[in-house]
Amino acid sequence: MTHMYSLDGILVFGLLFVCTCAYFKKVPRLKTWLLSEKKGVWGVFYKAAVIGTRLHAAVAIACVVMAFYVLFIK
């Protein structure tokens, strides 16, 4: 039986989600529309944007490491 999800795929999705939400925080229209809620289901976008902006160095390093892994090792 094959696995439906792989750990590296979930990590790539998480990193891309955090980076995208951090970018949305910099765009004024998207910030008011998508990141206005801080609780509930829509609060996930806000929390990912906060993680992306506060830990920008760690997220950038993780993106570079994951890109190297996906391109050359996998």
Automatic annotation (TrEMBL):
TM stretches of this protein: 48-72
Main location: Golgi
Annotated organism of origin: Prolemur simus (Greater bamboo lemur)
Stated family: Belongs to the KISH family.
Full protein name: Protein kish
Keyword Membrane on entry: yes
Annotated membrane topology: Single-pass type I membrane protein
Subcellular location as annotated: Golgi apparatus membrane
One GO cellular component term noted in the UniProt record for this chain: Golgi membrane
Gene from which this protein is expressed: TMEM167B
Role according to the record: Involved in the early part of the secretory pathway.
Domain of life: Eukaryota
